[in-house]
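User: Fold this; tokens only.

Assistant: Input:
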Amino acid sequence: MSSGEETLTRDVVFDVLSSARRRQVLRLLKTEGPMELTELAEHVAARENDTTVENLTKQQRKRVYVSLYQTHVPKMEDAGLVEYDQETSMVSLKARAAEIDQYLGRDERFRWQYVYLFIAAAGLLLLVLSNTALPVVGALSQGDLAFALVGALALTAIAHLAVWLRRRPDVLRRFRR
């Protein structure tokens, strides 16, 4: 079934989402972007086995890779949700994958955008209050506020990067080569 032009039916959506492994693949591709099939299989296997990619056994990697290659990726490709490039072994989401977001449920990952939004809002509030005669806040200079805000953003960005790198140890391995 080449669903490129066909409507994504409820039956197709539920069939694709009936597998926890396929749901995991769709979530990973949505949050992390396109991945090589081997890397995708490692991340899925690590989550399924509640371990890190480095601690996976060869058998755990192979079992997930084979099932993704033979069953899951072709099914999602037939539904028009992902694209698999045989030459590069890259798996990526197609635009129509957004049609099933409502069925995937929420990703339980930390929402960093809210931290950044809070820092920006707090900075704006402090900036406005620094022009008042309020004790402490009114005594802060514009330079002090700028330093505090840049420091808060820098620390948040470092924490965000550390969490991201912990989930993607393969990135560090690429830089070490």
